[in-house]
Amino acid sequence: MALGIPARIRVSSTAAQAERFHGDLPLKALPRLAELLAETGGMLAVSLQASSLQGHVALQGTLGGVLPLACKRCGKTYGWPLQTEVDWRLVVDEASERALMQDCEPLLVENDELQLREAIEDEILLSLPMLPRCESCENVVAVQPEAAPVEEEPRRENPFAALKKQLKSD
Ligand SMILES: [Zn+2]
């Protein structure tokens, strides 16, 4: 059954019913992400499966889509392909959070409630490129690096050193 992507979920029942969150989430529904996008008309494909894993509630799956980003070099809007794997463990205390950090991504939940859309948004914000560049700019940058090697200046004597020398010899 398609449940859509609710804003928040009740953790215990989600796991007990092995719920699946599968569907499209409008980019407009993620305000912090939308602020960074060139356009917000698109959709995000979400596919998450809840289960119980080693005493914790797990949410695993993928987030995908094409995000319209503005190229930092030419300003053109281009589609950045997002495809990210999610491996969350919903934990209720910081000790479990620390214990799981090596193997997966623990999310601390309070009052049996997870802000699902916010968690999805956080995940995407973390995977966005720091310096968005469209494909043609990426190629230009790869062929001719912007940071050209600095030409070495001809060695000149420090004018103050020269003055010091003069004073000493007087
Ligand atoms: Zn560009």
Produce the secondary structure layout.
Blueprint: E1 9-10, H1 11-16, E2 20-26, H2 31-34, E3 43-53, E4 56-70, E5 77-91, H3 94-100, E6 105-108, E7 113-114, H4 116-127, H5 135-143, H6 159-169
Parallel strand pairs: 5-6
Antiparallel strand pairs: 1-7, 2-3, 3-4, 4-5
Bound molecules: zinc ion (ZN).
Task: Describe it.
The chain has 170 residues and is an alpha+beta fold. It has one domain. Helix content is 29%, strand content 33%. The protein is built from 6 helices and 7 strands. It has helices spanning 11-16, 31-34, 94-100, 116-127, 135-143, 159-169; strands at 9-10, 20-26, 43-53, 56-70, 77-91, 105-108, 113-114. A 5-stranded mixed β-sheet has the order 2-3-4-5-6. The longest helix is centred in the last third of the chain and has 12 residues, at 116-127. The chain is elongated and about 90 Å long. Bound molecules: zinc ion. Zinc ion binds at residues 71, 73-74, 76, 133-134, 136-137.
Task: Provide a brief overview of the structure.
This protein is of the alpha+beta class and 170 residues long. It has helices at residues 11-16, 31-34, 94-100, 116-127, 135-143, 159-169; strands at residues 9-10, 20-26, 43-53, 56-70, 77-91, 105-108, 113-114. The strands form two sheets. A five-stranded mixed beta sheet has the order 2-3-4-5-6. The protein has a two-stranded antiparallel sheet with strand order 1-7.
